[in-house]
Amino acid sequence: MYTIVEEKTEHAILIGLKTQKSEKNWDRSFAELHNLAETAGVVVAGEMVQSKLVSDPTFFIGKGKAEELKRMADLLEADVVIANQELTPVQIKNLEYIIGVKVIDRTQLILHIFAERARSKEGKLQVELAQLKYLLPRLLGKGMDMSRLGGGIGAKGPGETKLELDRRRIRDQIHRLEQELKQIGNHRSLRTTRRSKSDIYTVAMVGYTNAGKSTLFKTLLEQYGQGDAEEGRNRLFDTLETTTRKLTLPFLGDVILSDTVGFIQDLPHHLIQSFRSTLEEVVEADLLLHVVDASDPDWPEQAATVYQVLDDLKKQDRKVLTVFNKIDQLETHEYGKEALYDPNADRMQKISAKEKLGLEELAEQLTVLLEGSIQEYLIQLPYEMGSQVRTIHASGQVLEETYEESHMQIRVNMTKTKAQKFLPFLVP
Description:
By secondary structure, the protein is an alpha/beta fold.
């Protein structure tokens, strides 16, 4: 599916345009570009930042700065220039003409990383679809923009042969991929429907990339689940394909938990749309578990990015439990009530997935949001209804059982929702 050419480690120069519009989040965005480049296996040899009111429509950073960039690229023997913003076909073509090396933008870099990480058939189809949608308006002919895809960063894509196809055939390919992904999505919808009919709650984990979602997923499986999950690693986009497992939580019972792809600032729109079928786990979930890296000082901006993606998915109306992760990396005063607060969340919980702190409280918060608060109830059950005793034990925490002449009395902690099943036998 992909044209892969293994080459030596590439050296890159990162460039960015600091405008009045982008100045607020500039430092975080440019630091992310560094992380993305390193994730892609590129050595960052240098960087160049240009301050302008607006982007130059011809050379992005301006012709003079582009000529300066050529001298830097020659001096550092750079193989590629990576721009922090999405470039137009004209800007890429003109920059490559002056600098003499290939130029890619942030979107291409992210697509390259996704192509490297995709393992399942669905994941590979999704990435290819996003790449083709990105490339379709950028078919400029057989200049450097064609030969540059021979290898290295940005080369893991549909390849030169597909790029030589005319626009109609590219659109046909996009349509075919969309139909194939739709079929896969239909199969997932059937599974989701079967789960909903079985009254099993679904919880989808969302969050900024590298917030610790995969580590929390593994920790919750060890604590409350069956089966195994891969160890979370400290790298961007470690999870691409949605992973789903079953947990059995106290008072709540079985819950389906899904770990989804991490979000990032300026996540390409084509990528969100292409991964929409995978993100149906988010769309259809009963509750969103929003994992936040509390040790990152930029967590409020990262949380805002997550909610923006949820807005794009038209599913900002879901119940949200925000989990402030990595509190073991903070001083006590840093995670006080005032410091960690998410106004978009229905409830919040501070935890450390790595150190397994706050997990019981997290399970309780999940229970409260899904089924209501846990309370103590007194159930007065006639002996002829004795078959319900096992159900009561399975539905909550039995505190005491006493036996009277005509009935048994059971004191039990359980959720409001489960208590409704025994409404005729509840003692006020």
